């Protein structure tokens, strides 16, 4: 079935990692095609992303992120922007360079003239300013240091309080950055004519985390599911609400190769461990990374996952998150999508290992091999939670 909506993402080296990945995987999970273009790059080329995170200094630190693939030709997309329903421009330093690129500015201006939704985060508001799209008092928010740009371009500055705020003024959707992705996704879907039906409503999802949880595998489900109306919380047996878990990035240069580990964003714990119970949630998500090695040493974490299964709730794991399901005895006799790192563990736990791209749902157990499969992983969760998004 052809996608009912198509979104264009304007990319470049050192765009913010989450601000590219979350819209990509969230929209793809809902059946929206996302074409990724970058001036000077061709399909198959990669953009290097950047992690922006506060690490104890007055300004965020920039760390290397993932390699983010370009999938479409810039010139072809720029020649026919009307075939796209929206434009997403992540934040990051790349926006400074693209603001001086005539082709990139003209593309942003074309979406503004068509009044198609334009999503801007963090620093990418500079591109709309260069395109003249903030003139006339357009209400806009951004990272705090971009306020003079918004005002010099004729826009009306809106403080990004809370950080989860997405400001919608006509076709312009703006936010301080990735903390606002739940609102961004919800408002972008609405702007493209989507209707989200949560069925019985109020589905609650718990994401289990610990230090060195996989960066994408924790944050993408967290933001994407919140964007379609779920109430999503994160919990860790050794941390209290408000404390951070450090994440890890794994992005092998070649398929099948062992990846180096790099530090990613901080992932905030939003609920105390005492409040994490199967009775209070409809689904538990166990991301990978090295965090599951810590979680399996806490019997309360293993017992919690088992409790979700015993009560007929949705249990999902991705990557090394399978270790926790194995320890809880949930994989025996189940089909399990597993990559190389968890293949032996899954088989020892009695699973039928499925070596396929995508995600596998066996009853209410959902598994995926790793973060490249996040779109089908989230799609399976949306389906099992009874959520439909129609255009």
From TrEMBL:
One of its GO terms (molecular function) is lactoylglutathione lyase activity. Coiled coil: none annotated. Residues 5-190, 204-382 form the DJ-1/PfpI domain. InterPro entries: C56_PfpI-like, Class_I_gatase-like, DJ-1/PfpI. Pfam families: DJ-1_PfpI. Belongs to the peptidase C56 family. This is DJ-1/PfpI domain-containing protein. It comes from Setaria italica (Foxtail millet). The lineage of its organism: Eukaryota, Viridiplantae, Streptophyta, Embryophyta, Tracheophyta.
């Amino acid at each position: 079935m052809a996608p009912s909506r198509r979104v264009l993402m304007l990319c470049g080296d050192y765009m913010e990692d989450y601000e590219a990945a979350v819209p990509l995987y969230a929209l793809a999970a809902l059946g929206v095609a996302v074409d990724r273009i970058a001036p000077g790059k061709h399909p198959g080329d990669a953009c290097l992303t950047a992690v922006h995170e506060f690490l104890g200094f007055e300004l965020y630190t920039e760390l290397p992120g993932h390699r983010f693939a370009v999938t479409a030709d810039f010139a072809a997309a720029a020649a026919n922007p009307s075939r796209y329903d929206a434009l997403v421009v992540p934040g990051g330093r790349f926006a400074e360079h693209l603001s001086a690129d005539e082709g990139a500015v003209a593309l942003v201006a074309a979406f503004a003239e068509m009044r198609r939704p334009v999503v801007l985060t963090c620093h990418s508001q500079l591109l709309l300013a260069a395109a003249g799209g903030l003139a006339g008092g357009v209400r806009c928010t951004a990272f705090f240091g971009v306020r003079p740009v918004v005002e010099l371009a004729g826009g009306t500055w809106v403080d990004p309080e809370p950080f989860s705020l997405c400001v919608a003024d006509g076709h312009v959707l703006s936010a301080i950055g990735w903390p606002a992705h739940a609102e961004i996704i919800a408002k972008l879907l609405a702007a493209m004519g989507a209707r989200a039906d949560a069925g019985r409503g109020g589905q609650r999802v718990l994401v289990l985390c610990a230090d060195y949880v996989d960066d994408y595998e924790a944050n993408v489900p967290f933001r994407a599911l919140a964007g379609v109306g779920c109430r999503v919380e994160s919990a860790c047996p050794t941390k209290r609400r408000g404390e951070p878990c450090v994440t890890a990035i794994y992005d092998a240069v070649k398929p099948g190769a062992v990846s180096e580990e790099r530090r990613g964003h901080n992932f905030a714990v939003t609920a105390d461990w005492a409040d994490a119970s199967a009775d209070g949630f409809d689904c538990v998500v166990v991301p990978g990374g090295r965090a599951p090695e810590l979680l399996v040493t806490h019997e309360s974490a293993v017992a919690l996952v088992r409790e979700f299964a015993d009560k007929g709730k949705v249990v999902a794991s991705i990557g090394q998150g399978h270790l926790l399901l194995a320890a809880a005895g949930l994989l025996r006799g189940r089909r399990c999508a597993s990559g190389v790192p968890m293949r032996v563990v899954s088989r020892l736990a009695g699973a039928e290992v499925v070596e396929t791209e995508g995600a596998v749902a066996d009853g209410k157990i959902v598994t995926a091999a790793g973060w490249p499969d996040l779109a089908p992983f989230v799609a399976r969760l949306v389906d099992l939670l009874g959520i439909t998004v129609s255009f």
